[in-house]
């Protein structure tokens, strides 16, 4: 498994910190800050892992997740969801997210999960 | 006659208070002293005819004899038992309880009201926590900045060989995010601080607060008072929501007074009595204005309920012998709701509310439509029901206050079981 991570996060500073962190670990990172183009991008880029923020402008994280799970092509694509509240987490679980990270997360936590999910 | 088990006791109290001898009273109304003695000790049922004669002789209201002064208290306790059902409370001996332990009964009713008030407060707080868009938005903002601060600070602290340009960038981000975090936290604190006095959080229902205020004024605001706006009195109300409702009430009273001044109203009343439909037609006012104005005249002694299109009561001026439910929905048989479905068609009916010793009322209900934003705006529907005292005979519509505390067990409009097991109609 190569290690292409697509991050969908609307907070530029969080995205920057995560990009730095994961790039240093040898992952290839791409980043989108809103939900609308995500599905097309996933189809064209075929990332190994998607990190999805729950609250996004445009299409919400949950809607994206539901769309991914409905498409046979992306049904098994590993998705890590960044959530804040308990109720959101339940909804994401039902929609088929593989892992959850609650904000505010620690860098070590993120790294460990990403490594586990990409098998590195 | 379980509702009035203490009628005899009340008769006796009244007679003794007036200093009459048993034999004299019995003689005056044509019954034997020993029969009166049995009645006074609640050991004989009193027939309506004898009750009427006794009430006249002792100069006391017949309903007061049957219900006692504790009528409202009994209603409250019945509602308390209904809410806690099955509570095991001996509803059939409620009158006995209230009669013998008025203090404890009052305390129980008070505690019940207090419980409901607190429940409402918890609900309000809960709503506020889970549905308040500002709170949820602020928390999201704080969590986002915090996540960013944490991730960035950890990189700065834990990356020994961090290139200079990256370090600079992360420091800038950190500074920016800590400012955002501070601003977000301040906004949260300010929000939670402002208007978070207990009364503001729905601990006292604003409508009840306003009703209490109006009750204190005898539900009357003179035209002159309405014109002043009564700002000072309204300032005395505890919650902002109640103050706002009270201001609306006074503003509407002022507008009503302008449309139909006291002098015109008095003249019209003298001419054709408390008829809101004629009043509206002759004086060229909206029927709702006519209803509200009639309810302000003390001599008419009318109650008035107004509901919006959802059936929720927005105005509750009580009438003697016509209990209005304090919480929740009212009796679906009220002509108020029939009128709500048929705008501008007045409905007049003679009604008898369950458990009110056969007391009757004449009610006049009418509903109106408003389109404040014209053709494509929302339609606002409102219905009002004037509750007038009535002494005439004729067919009556049997209604209740609210299903839970209504004894008409066979009622076809019933939506939930009553807690009153048997019919407890007072004899007519």
Describe the protein's topology:
The complex is a heterodimer of chains A (120) and B (428).
Chain A: E1 4-8, H1 12-24, E2 28-32, H2 38-45, E3 49-53, H3 61-70, E4 79-83, H4 86-95, E5 99-102, H5 107-118
Parallel strand pairs in A: 1-2, 1-3, 3-4, 4-5
Chain B: H1 7-18, H2 22-28, H3 33-40, H4 48-57, H5 62-67, H6 71-84, H7 94-100, H8 102-131, H9 133-158, H10 164-193, H11 206-216, H12 223-228, H13 231-235, H14 240-259, H15 262-272, H16 276-283, H17 287-296, E1 303-308, E2 313-317, H18 335-340, E3 347-353, E4 360-370, E5 380-390, E6 397-399
Parallel strand pairs in B: 3-6
Antiparallel strand pairs in B: 1-2, 1-5, 3-4, 4-5
Element pattern of chain A in H and E: EHEHEHEHEH
- Global mean pLDDT of chain B: 84
**The CATH class of chain A:** Alpha Beta
Radius of gyration of chain A, whole Å? 13 Å
Mean of all residue-level pLDDT scores of chain A: 88
Strand order of the largest sheet of chain B: 2-1-5-4-3-6
N-to-C span of chain B: 11 Å
Q: Roughly how much helix do the residues of chain A carry, as a percent range?
A: 40-55%
Q: Count structural domains of chain B.
A: 4
Number of helices of chain B: 18
Radius of gyration of chain B (Å):
30 Å
User: Regarding quaternary structure, how should these chains be classified?
Assistant: heterodimer
Order of helices and strands of chain B: HHHHHHHHHHHHHHHHHEEHEEEE
CATH architecture of the largest domain in chain B: 2-Layer Sandwich
Tell me what the structure shows.
The complex is a heterodimer of chains A (120) and B (428). Chain A contains five helices and five strands; from the N terminus they run βαβαβαβαβα. With 120 residues, chain A is an alpha/beta fold. Chain A has a single domain, classed as Response regulator (Rossmann fold), CATH 3.40.50.2300. A five-stranded parallel β-sheet of chain A has the order 2-1-3-4-5, with helices on both faces. The longest helix of chain A is centred in the N-terminal third of the chain and has 13 residues. Chain A starts with a strand and ends with a helix. The mean pLDDT of chain A is 88. Classes of the chains: A alpha/beta (120), B alpha+beta (428). Chains A and B meet through helix 1 and helix 5 of A and helix 9 and helix 10 of B.
